[in-house]
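Quick illustration, no need to memorize.
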Amino acid sequence: NILEIGSKQPMAALSLVYGLDSVYSYTFQELNQLNFSAFGQQQLIVLNQVAEVSSALADALSNYLQQGGLLLFIPPMQLSASLNSWLAKEGIVLNQLQNNLQVLDKPELKHPILAKVFAKFPQMPNMPSVKQWFSYQLNVPQKVILSLGNGTPWLSEIKKGAGSLYLFGSNLNTSTTDFTRNALFVPIMLNMPLLA
């Protein structure tokens, strides 16, 4: 089960990817209609561009992670005090939004998300680019999966209790990045819930 939480509408790329295979049961819920008691039934929760994180949602997400859940955080372009507060409790600080084009560097192929995807990674791969992104500081150990060309982590895994929090450095809108159109997107998204 995969649950996407957002404030407006589901991300088309996510619903398409998880609709490819009957192994995945994908649902979308708006932020104001959440059923926290259903979190424990999810293999993956995607917190997609949620600007405000209530204390009830923060507690539910923390409990979900501690009990072995997988959470994917995709940041909004505007950060709120409640979002920054929740991130700080998780050991994450998002820095000021950067507006300069970066091409992603070669992925960390030893990470379990990508370990069985490529027999050999291409010498001259077509890597996605990112126009706007946050650098982030973590007060907890991380495993970097994807980095920007300047070395800044863009997708990281952070162990939280028995679970993992995956953190993107930007939203995945097509106006921000072409990642959802790149060959890396599908295997990363399909393999992530399998690590639960």
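The chain has a mean pLDDT of 91.
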